[in-house]
Structure to design on (116 residues):
């Protein structure tokens, strides 16, 4: 069907370094710490995932690791840089507002788009 997988990394409780490690596991050829783990788990060829979502609904207070937009934007910026330094062919997607019923609706988006 021509679908592209997208992996969501954890930027609530996770770190930009963990995001980079997942990218290394998923997309790099054997010969690194995390790509060798993938090989040991039975997958020699990289998955070559191109779309990476930088968190999910992190604006929602129901989320573990919920942070304000300015803090998320910094994490997203750091994660994007460290990931693209490893694999410049990927695309990253920032998290927008989860609902138009939230007090932070649109303010979240504006902050993330201007700071990330």
């Amino acid at each position: 069907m021509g679908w592209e997988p997208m992996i969501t990394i954890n930027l609530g409780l996770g770190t930009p370094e963990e995001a980079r490690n997942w990218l290394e596991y998923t997309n790099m050829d054997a010969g690194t710490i995390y790509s060798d783990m993938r090989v040991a788990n039975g997958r020699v060829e990289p998955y070559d995932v191109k779309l990476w979502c930088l968190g999910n609904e992190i604006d929602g207070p129901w989320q573990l690791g919920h942070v304000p937009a300015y803090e998320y934007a910094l994490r997203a910026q750091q994660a994007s840089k460290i990931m693209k330094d490893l694999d410049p062919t990927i695309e990253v997607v920032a998290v927008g507002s989860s609902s138009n019923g939230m007090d932070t609706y649109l303010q979240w988006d504006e902050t993330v788009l201007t700071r990330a």
Summary: The mean pLDDT is 94. The longest strand covers residues 6-9.
